[in-house]
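Researcher: Structure prediction, please.
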Amino acid sequence: MKFLFVTPLAESASLVQKVQEEGHAVRFYIKDRKWRDVARGLVPHVRDWKKHRDWADIIVFDDVEMAKDAEWLRERGYPVIGGNIFGDRIENDRIFGVKIMREAGIRFPRSWRFKSFASGIKFIQKNPGRYVIKFNGQLDRFLCYVGKFPDGSDMTDLLNHYPSVWLKKDKIDFILQEVIDGVEMSVSGFFNGTDFAYPINVTFEHKRFMAGGVGPFTGEMGTTIYYSKDGGKLFRETLLKMKPYLARTNYRGFIDINCMVTERGAYALEFSSRFGYPQLDIQLALHKTPWGELLHKLALGTLEKFDAHRDFAVGVVIAGAGVPFEVSYNKYGRGLPILGINENNKHWIRLSEVFKKNGAYYCAGSGYPMTVTVRGKSMVSAQQAAYNIVDQIVVPNSLYRTDIGDHWKHERLKLKKWGYI
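Model: Predicted structure follows.
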């Protein structure tokens, strides 16, 4: 089959390579010029995806903010995977997402929307407490912050600081969400236009830059996942309740809901109406059903189930020098060589933001060149095997967290007691 992948930021690069390895023809379009070096020398690139839409058997949109194109094609009979306007909105407009959660009967933390930093400061002064700041849209994750002080004074200091560094081109549009303490856990699945396909994915993200959950937020520095036959309690309390909304809008693609799980129940934090990254890279290690077959059935609306290993999988992101800040990565990390990939370990290495030239690999994109992904019968065995491979890779001055998977030691018992695993 022939697959056309359309992406703003090249985040599906590892999936494109996987589909190509299965023997399918692929073409890769990257909208943002800054990331067009990603997967150069690894998969065929095109400059104008619209000129290739009639060539493709399946068209895959891998991110939000391209829903209008996906819906236009789907209405005209093209087999398309990707979100839709509803999916984009529940992710990018957080207050709309909360409204839908309320309608669906999903528990969520109280949230308030602001379009100026001053109004946010006044709100906290009148309503002291711990809040999380999250920006609507797709602004850099490191702008998010989880308040520490009970009176909210650390958050007001941050909001006082932002005007001095804010770029005029970036719209001020954010929410303050009450802090819920618990275990962060997400549940996600493929939706075929009418129903979820099983099994259901369960994920534990590591968004902070440094080990121990310290430092700024990133896209993600590592993830642990497994598949559940029916999704369990978390799926029933949250994402399964979205079925009528997704069916009503003919959603075809992958969708995730991130939650804070407590003894009192699960609180939904946010939607991701797209593939997750590096979640997708780690799913590649667990799937038995070929990805070309899965994507084909998903686009046609016939995917009801697929085969996956009943193992745990651990993914460790190796970041380039200068990450997490784009300006420093562009200066110090972009173009650096990647060494140590060989015939014995390459099966467990997912090349993401990388280009290949003269047989060698180099760092590209925004600074997250690869994810080492290994599965095992236990979380500990998968973790140990993953870090054994991480130790074999050399990217000058690269960075990675050393604790991906450690959470399982202390969170597993809580989640089992509360009925979530």
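Model: The chain is about 30% helix and 25% strand.
Researcher: Thanks, that helps.
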